[in-house]
Each structure stands twice: as C-alpha cells, then as structure tokens.
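Re: [ENG-882] Designed sequences occasionally contain unexpected residues at chain ends

Forwarding the minimal case from QA. Structure tokens:
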C-alpha cells in the first residue's frame, strides 16, 4: 500500500527541487533521503499499490494517477495547506463528514478541512486504486491513521478505512468526486 508519513520535525535538510512525481522517483533512486518507490500490481484488486513517503518540500502538482489524489491530499493536510487540499476536489464534489452528513461543493469541503487542520493532524495512509474499464473513473481506498491535538490541547489518535471516487479531468489530471473517510469500514 501507499504509505505517507508526516515529516519528522528533526529533519532540517533543505527540500529537493521536486516538480513532479517523476522527480521524486528519480531522487528516490539517487539520493539517500528519499526512498525508492516500489510499484506492485495487486492481482486481488486489479489495482495498484504504491509505497510512498512524502517529505517537507515535496511534490506540489496535480494528481496524474487516481491514487495520487489521496497521496497529495494527505501531503497537503500534513502541511496544513488548505488551498492545495481543496483544489483536489471537483467543484461539486461530495464529502462525508464523521457524523455521516454529506456535504457538497468546494466551499463546504474547505470549511470541513479547515476544522480538521485546526487539530494539526499528521496522517499516515496506505492507498489502493482500481480504475474502471474506460479509464475515466477510479475507486480508491485508504487505510489511514492520524495523530493531532484536540480542541482541549490534548493529543489524540484515530484510524479508519476510506473510499473515494476520482474522475479524470479533460486535462488528464484526477480530482475527487466523492470522498468518504470512513467508507471502507
């Protein structure tokens, strides 16, 4: 699965000049601080599993593969980057809140994401993606865990299994259509 881990605060090395996932792959093979990214087909799900670590100063780019929506979203959330997180959703995307309520549209998703960011979350995820026959829709799922600080200032942890639907856009990038953080439970 795809693993995204929060940046270690003690890692003070300057960021590498990363412009794309291809750069991350190249640096992962040539620089010791970024790992190689083993890819493996998962015959049980006919999906793709990616082992991936994102570091401070990592890739700022649109999702070019379905699973990159999850990876880039978690990178943005770990950095506290609200604009990047919200930009990964279609304008009329749906998001399922922890309460089960479904919200629609980037403005509502921005408000929900902003409340999550107030908790200073640090996520770790594993991603699986299954693309449909015509290649324009994909089902992704993650197994995730999170640590943060609650409203009372106390540390918290959480975990879950998500399900998302992402769609290929006219420019070839992918965006979330439906995001349910607990849809895989």
């Amino acid at each position: 699965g795809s693993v995204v881990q929060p940046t270690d605060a003690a890692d003070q090395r300057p960021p590498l000049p990363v412009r794309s996932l291809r750069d991350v792959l190249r640096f992962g093979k040539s620089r010791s601080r970024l790992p190689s990214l083993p890819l493996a087909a998962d015959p049980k799900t006919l999906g793709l599993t990616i082992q991936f670590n994102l570091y401070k100063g990592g890739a700022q780019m649109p999702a070019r593969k379905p699973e990159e929506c999850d990876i880039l979203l978690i990178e943005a959330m770990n950095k506290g980057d609200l604009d990047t997180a919200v930009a990964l959703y279609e304008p009329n995307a749906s998001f399922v809140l922890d309460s089960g309520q479904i919200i629609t549209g980037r403005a509502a998703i921005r408000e929900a994401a902003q409340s999550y960011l107030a908790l200073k979350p640090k996520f770790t995820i594993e991603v699986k993606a299954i693309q449909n026959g015509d290649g324009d829709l994909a089902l992704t799922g993650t197994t995730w865990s999170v640590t943060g600080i609650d409203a009372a200032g106390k540390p918290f942890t959480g975990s879950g299994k998500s399900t998302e639907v992402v769609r290929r856009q006219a420019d070839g990038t992918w965006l979330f259509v439906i995001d349910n953080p607990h849809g895989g439970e």
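QA comment: On inspection the terminal residues look reasonable. The chain is about 25% helix and 35% strand. Proposing we downgrade this to a documentation issue.
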